[in-house]
Amino acid sequence: MLLDRYLRLIDQELLPFIQLTSESPFDPIIVTNQSKSWKTIGSGNYAGVFSNDENPEWVVKVYGRNPEELKKEIEVYKKLGTHGTYSTLYAYGEDYLVLKKLEGITLFDAIIKGVLIPESVIKDVDRGLHYAKSIGLNPFDVHGKNVVMNKGRGFIVDVSDFYKQGYCCKWDDLKKAYYKIYKPFLIKYHPPIPFFIMDRVRKGYRFYRKKKKEKYES
Question: Which helix (H) or strand (E) holds 150?
């Protein structure tokens, strides 16, 4: 079977040739990939993501830290089932997931490159979040780096924190910025914004939210 062969490729040609390290729990995983048949296509706070030309419609998400979170993400995907806003879980191992590949550009990179973000993308994500809530999940940590768009459609590529409790304001804050800043002032002329500026905005936002939380809890 195709899936069985794919799992053998993971065990024999991917896992022995990659190293996932982390300098800080607040920064993405650093991926070192010496495999000749697997490409690194991304990294996040917990994992690296890889693809193989034998089946380009699938990706492998390999956890580099907090492996206990893997089991929670598996349960999230099982609850989500098949939905147009999310990936689909095909298989999993001790430290990885096999997922449907979601093509597209992240909203973060779209801002940097000056790629238009249509309102339909925002509405797609809203519908996906509403669906997740309706089946008992709690959408958490949804932001510009884990939302991608493709041909005017929006997709959520990371659901690893959907099991958490409490309120996460990141998507609501992003929507406010979209409707109050991006749509009235940027969408018409659509200028690229350098990475260093966006990175400062990201870090500034994180610092602002941290201080606001500390003030609220004090």
Answer: strand 147-150
For 49, 81, 101, 183, the CA distances from 139, given in Å and listed in that order, are 21, 15, 20, 24
Distance between CA atoms of residues 173 and 194, nearest Å: 21
Handedness of CA 163, 109, 206, 26 (dihedral sign): positive
Q: Which of 95, 94, 97 is nearest to 58 (CA)?
A: 97
**Could you give the domains of the chain?**
2-100 (3.30.200), 105-217 (1.10.510)
Mean pLDDT by 10-residue block, N- to C-terminus, for the chain (218 residues)?
94 97 80 97 89 96 89 96 96 96 96 96 98 97 95 96 95 96 88 90 78 62
Pairwise CA distance, residues 33 & 35, whole Å: 6
Distance, CA of 133 to CA of 34 (rounded, Å): 40
Report how far Cα 73 is from the mean position of its chain's Cα atoms. 12
pLDDT, position 209: 73
